[in-house]
Amino acid sequence: MAAPIQKVLIANRGEIALRVQRACREMGIPTVAVHSTADAEAMHVRLADESVCIGPPAARDSYLNAAAILSAAIVTGADAIHPGYGFLSENAAFADMVEAHGLTFIGPSPDHIRMMGDKIAAKAAMASLGVPLVPGSEGEVATLEQARAVCAAIGYPVLVKAAAGGGGRGMKVARDADGLEEAWRVARAEARAAFGNEAVYMEKYLDRPRHIELQVMADAYGHVVHFGERDCSLQRRHQKLLEEAGSPALDATQRARLGTTVTGALRQLGYRNAGTLEFLYQDGQFAFIEMNTRLQVEHPVTEMVCDADLVREQIRVASGEALGYTQSDIVMRGHAIECRITAEDPDSFMPTPGLVSVYHPPGGPGVRVDSALYAGYRVPPFYDSLVAKLIVHAPTRAEAIARLRRSLDEFAVLGIKTTLPLHQRIVEDAQFQAGDYDIHWLERFVAAQ
């Protein structure tokens, strides 16, 4: 059994760094914040027990600098590293380095990170464990002739996807034979530029699917549970903007069926710590697309409906503790919705870094705001534009929408433009209120504004 964790270095920034800090503080575990020179006045630095500057503003020289992060952990006496999400959170080589230096990586094993980071290997593994897949290629599509053969077998339209991808990069749709060559070549070029790996594979492009994901937690003793599903269908350019738990499209029977399949597969795999399996759902059928071997941005909606602290559970499992509960102990109550608030123009989606002159988050029953903003803080231009997450919880979806509407109206961020007005428009839409949307809905909604 691993020894209890004594001090955690948080290899991240912004609201997720604060989220991990808060869990550690409540567990009585000191924290170390790392930061670039651009983040010297950031809230996660101000509130940490210790902080270390690890480099200049560019992420490659700071938050992606594994050697600097490991040095900071060793110098400060931290015995564990929590990677948050993004940056090095799904970097198997970094997890290997952490363990090689005798530190605890608060996350899955490097082998599982490596397996699931390769989308082709992940699909093969899930298929072997009985998890349903989207029809597509059996592996890499290395030539245009292979791409044409796949299309002949599954039909158009098809989606060409980077094997090492994420965040919508290296993904192109071919709706017919005329568009296949361009989609295949562009996807490979984007994959090579973004991930240093040009390998792509192909899937059938579904016309009206929902994006459903299942939150799991597993310990080192073979215990695996799920915390229900999240509906992450409201996306723009494959980037999630709003998430719900549970999904308006699923009932308890469908949830249980998916949960049994997933937990059984991960138990066979010997998976450990937090993870999220993502599926497309259409016509009553689930199809696995990928697994994220880390905490998700949208984890708060799960925490709200299940009354759970997923970061605390990550730390407990990494310390060698057993889960201590079973699937029957996890009950989803009510409904939760999360809006991702970004420092972007709500119409053009251009980034809007700058000085925050006023910051007033909403409050009241069932309202949670995860943010590192404060009045006088200057949002830097070097990182992801996410600046706040507004999460609401209520007994029913209709009540949650009413609470979200009220909270969005209260939320004030001045000095920079944010996507708050976009979320206000979404909440007023009749189709959203009815839960009648798919992964293409938001693109159509934005285009019609």
Descriptive account of the structure:
Helix 4 (92-100) links the parallel strand 4 and strand 5 (104-105). Helix 4 packs antiparallel against helix 5 (110-117), helix 7 packs across helix 8 and helix 12 (397-410) packs antiparallel against helix 13. The radius of gyration is 21 Å and the shape is globular. The longest helix is centred in the middle third of the chain and has 19 residues, at 177-195. The protein has three domains: 8-106, Rossmann fold (3-Layer(aba) Sandwich), CATH 3.40.50.20; 135-204, ATP-grasp fold, A domain (Dna Ligase, domain 1, 2-Layer Sandwich), CATH 3.30.1490; 210-447, 2-Layer Sandwich (D-amino Acid Aminotransferase, Chain A, domain 1), CATH 3.30.470.20. It contains 15 helices and 20 strands. It has 449 residues and is α+β, with helices and mostly antiparallel strands. The model has no long low-confidence stretch (mean pLDDT 96). The protein has an eight-stranded antiparallel beta sheet, sandwiched between helices. A five-stranded parallel beta sheet has the order 3-2-1-4-5.
